[in-house]
Write a structure and sequence with these properties.
With 141 residues, the chain is mainly α. 65% of the residues lie in helices and 4% in strands.
Length: 141
Amino acid sequence: MPIPRLANLSGRIRAKRKLQMPKSKTIIEIRSLARSHTRTALNVLVGIMRSKDATAAARVSAANAILDRGWGKATQTIETGDDRPLELVHRIELRADFQHLRRWRKSVEQAQSYTFKAVITIIAAGFVGAVWLGIKVMLGK
């Protein structure tokens, strides 16, 4: 099968080809390949972190990446407004709030559906009424 040719802005003809990953590459193989470069990547990050020529932002970013890999990302707390940690009661309340929002969204969607059906019914009834009136006038003459 011939490869389709496309002209670019300079007028040259170039071949259009799709880049495809071999289908034999699975997620596990890709992760394994990435993990095989861990030592090199870590050495690059350490090099950037220690480099005097690197910008401060690059050095901080490299240091954060190293700490995240070594110790895991820092946990983030959820503000409750009263300087207390998030408790089970708060989680239950959040779950109830989300359930309420889901029910509300469903009821809004139903109301929109009913409104659409009502509008269509009114238009159809008006059309049928106009046709009936037209027939009545035609027969009355």
